[in-house]
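Protocol step 4 of 6: structure prediction from sequence.
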Amino acid sequence: MCLIIDKPEGTSVPDLWLSNAVKNNDDGWGIMWAEGGKVRVEKGFREKGLKKWAGKLTEKHALIHCRLATSGKKSVENCHPYPAGNGVWMMHNGIISIPSSNEDWSDTKHFVEYCVKPMLAKYPGMYGTPLFDGLLSYFVGNGNKLAFMDGKGEVQIVNKRQGVEREGMWLSNSFGIAAPLKSFNGSGFYGNYTNHDDWEEAWDRRHSTQLQLSDGSAFPARTPQTSTTHIYTTHLCAMCKATTTAVEDDWEYLVGVGYICPVCYPGLENELTKPEDLTLYDLSQLPMEALRGLVREQPDAIALIIGLECGVIMDYEGKDVSKSLTKEGK
């Protein structure tokens, strides 16, 4: 998973958010804003570069992207945003299932070149319309978020409801700014680095198939134990990017995201189960046990979510109270 931050003019992204975002999504960053009738873009890999540009653009409406690669090479070219044609640029958070014609390209690059650019070339007036939003949402699915900006500074976010609001800003997810996972059974995934330069220098080692101890030495590869009751499977976790072997039933699979390992999922589940952030789509992705627990503990919150998405909120007597809630500002 990557991270997109929509920063309105006059707001500042907290330094801690940027630090965590780069560590959690360390395959490059990009930032875009409108100036002089055009979209300006800066890209890089180092945390201090992102902080420098974010600090300069406090008074500008800017979109920030931090990349966690799932396909394509690690390069400046594959850092978001991508030019989508007609002066429009695009960022993406998620995984798009699309045939690959170039192993160096990311899934986002393929989608821009083969879907978005042809659409805007043929229908230049479609950008910014509900039709544009609806078509792209249909193409990529609810698990993906797309953020666009044109030379006028007009922003359009596809599947915006799947993101979250934090301190006056929109984020494509909330775990991207959380403190990065540092340990697994007492041993560090990435080691304990004192600064981001050291973190970047160990990039190749961090992306190997073996975990790393806190001193940087290799963590012994785990060999599944023969068992008559458990089946072990190996997957690449979409969050921590570690190739891990675990009991098959302990893995979680989210549509549009991928496999989530047993270490990362509890944190993700905690994020999903905050009532203020939930949508019907989020509910559909929760494991049945977690959903049942949420229904038992917070039935009113579940009823409100369903009512808001259906446009009707009923009280306990079966009366529609949508208008009264709206008038009361609830």
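Step 5 (inspection) to follow. Residues 3-177 form a domain with the Glutamine Phosphoribosylpyrophosphate, subunit 1, domain 1 fold (CATH 3.60.20.10).
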